[in-house]
Amino acid sequence: MKTSEIMQAWGTILSGRSPSLSIEITRECPLRCPGCYAYEEGHLGLPGVTLRQLADYKGRALVQGVLSLIDEHRPLHVSFVGGDPLVRFRELEELLPEVNRRGIHAQVVTSAFRPIPLEWNALSLLNVVVSVDGLQPEHDVRRKPATYDRILKNVAGSKVTIHCTVTGQMMERPGYLEEFVRFWSGRHETKRIWFSLFTPQQGAAAPEILTPAQRRRFTEELLPLLVAYPLIDMKKGLIEQFHKPPSSPEDCIFARTTLTVSADLKTRITPCQFGGDPDCSQCGCVASMALAAVGNHRVMPGVTAGQLFAISELIGKGVKRLRSLHDPGKAAASPEAVIEQEAA
Ligand code: SF4
Ligand code: SF4
Questions:
Q1: The CATH number of domain 3-338 is 3.80.30.10
Q2: Which residues contact 27 (CB under 8 A, 6 or more apart)?
Q3: Among 30, 57, 248, 258, which residue's beta carbon has the most beta carbons within 10 A?
Q4: pTM, full prediction
């Protein structure tokens, strides 16, 4: 994160807004990945309702609904997630140039089960993130029909970020990470490589969850690769953060600076994009670790960026309260305000 971006984000927080907006633009996905959190009971925080049952939008209604959300919240960064956002690729073809024109950074997180439109190469503020769950044998089992062969065909001619969510099974084999990085570093389409670790819900048991020893081995194996494989876009400070994830959502800068809205463009996912009751002590989200690392930076003697953020957030909340007193109609229209009113 550049200093100018931190200053911009700081200004947004001071004005009571979230610098980052994440939108589950569709409930639909052609994949059925084991361990997918989006369709779990509890993800939405609505008793008995899963993402598959939520109303979602298509066509003009989706485009207009998303642009209204963006114009209302004026974030610096928007993530389009799902389901798989490429299910709504026609709507994205309209939305992404609009978002780019507004000077907002955008990210589309997809399995690349269908081709990435080549026109998206012209959008300077867009980052397409392709989820690849390990090497081909493991990935193809987990993420059929978005197999390696299909991904390689669908990203041809594009520049994408490869994002691997590391599981316990992958860490059983020494050298797995390097094999993965070597393969993707050799592809023209790879712009950068990110790793996250599988993040469980509280009390969950699954083979995807890394043991403490596997978590240690992940950082021990990844750190030496930074020199030989410059496409790994993760600094040492970020990687070390995987050993001390935020202790709770209140302690997580990422969760507190990102507003996540589901497919009905109204329901807010809390406390973070995982929804439900995530186990922060085992968090492996690369975005959370990146912001935690930024939060550790000293911005002046004795003051970290994280402390400055906490004070700014308090001021921002006051500003927001004042604004809603002056313009109650507008405040009530925001998904955030709707949820707050429903909970009151
Ligand atoms: S592609 Fe994403 S949303 Fe779809 S099943 Fe897999 S993890 Fe879930
Ligand atoms: S992103 Fe990770 S640390 Fe932050 S609230 Fe979610 S699970 Fe907890």
A1: yes
A2: 51, 52, 54, 56, 82, 83, 262, 263
A3: 258
A4: 0.89
